[in-house]
Write a structure and sequence with these properties.
Elements (H helix, E strand, L loop, with lengths): L1 H16 L6 H15 L4 E8 L2 E6 L6 H8 L30 E4 L3 E3 L3 H7 L17 E2 L2 H7 L1 H7 L4 E6 L4 H9 L12 E9 L5 E10 L5 E5 L6 E10 L3 H4 L11 E8 L7 E4 L3 E6 L4 E3 L16 H21 L22 H14 L1
Parallel strand pairs: 1-7, 12-14
Antiparallel strand pairs: 1-2, 2-6, 3-4, 3-6, 4-5, 7-8, 8-9, 9-10, 10-11, 11-14, 12-13
Helix pairs in contact: 5-6, 9-10
Amino acid sequence: NPDLMEEHVNQEESFRVGGYGQRQISELLQNAVDALTMGRKRGAIEFRVADGALYCANEGEPFARKGVRAVCYAFLSPKREEEIIGRFGLGFKSVLGITNHPQVFSRSVSFDFNAPGSEELFASIPAATGRPLPLLRVPSLIDVAPEAKNDPHLAEMMEWASTIVKLPLTNDGPRIRAELAAFATESLLFMKSVDQLTISLQDTSNKLLTKVHRREATKDSGTIRLHAPDAAPTDWLFAERDYAPSDAVLKTLPENASRRKMGVSYAVPVDGSASLGAFWAWFPLRDQTTARGIFNAPWQVNDDRTTMLTASALNGEMLAVCAELFLDVAVRASTPEDPAAHLDLFPARGREARSAADRMLSELIPELAR
């Protein structure tokens, strides 16, 4: 169908230039975390930039039929309860912003896109010469052995990883390197399945410079210790809760986004060094709060996933859960040496609200505290 092909090409172009156009690292990391969560294990993830390609490897569940279907289409990937982050299969489309030949090597199946045979497949559709083709629609099986033989990075990661995404870079290489070099270890706070995240960047002499970020939880999960590269460990007070949306909220959600259980969590440094607080959806949003610490949840956000929707009933209910989590943690911030330390974490009195969500927390937290 020529119209469908044109629609798919235009849809992919929107991913390149829209909100997903520069979200490759966060989206690949989210997919890797989901793979670990689905495998019900804790494990390692590695990002590597070397020899003109970006690699993302993980020890999680290998690709299944549903996973292949999700990366080939959009809005066909309703999340299961245990999948904490991704949505609708859209995130993988972000790779279109940096490559035209995505490759997936998994222990269950290995495939790539935009293989030479794809052009033959579309050749029978009448269209003008030189037309663009949809890239992420038709996967082709990969013969893994010669690929590994010709790529030492791939061969090395295949020794431990269950899935490796390889993206030969066509552009934005410097941005990708800079984003990985500046990776915030705090991102691991809410990724319970990740023990270690390794970032390896090849320098001009072809040497790999490696930095390791680690997450370590106490037995009761009340404190998280983060190990950032070249820095002393930091301890964070932590609390989380499974939130069940009310029937009224569920009616406001589309079917493919509706879940009976969602995880909401809150963390703040033990030493109280945090300044303004922040709202995260596993990665920082632009919204801030005068309450200290990080409030993390599957918020309803705008299309480029940077800002919370203010008129969201779901966000309203989750903010109420955040207020409860805040107080669970705040009482643990007080110490014999500083019995009023918890007061430093509290939000302002509403007159200096940094966002609509902050205004709501500024009302809810004191009310609950009383």
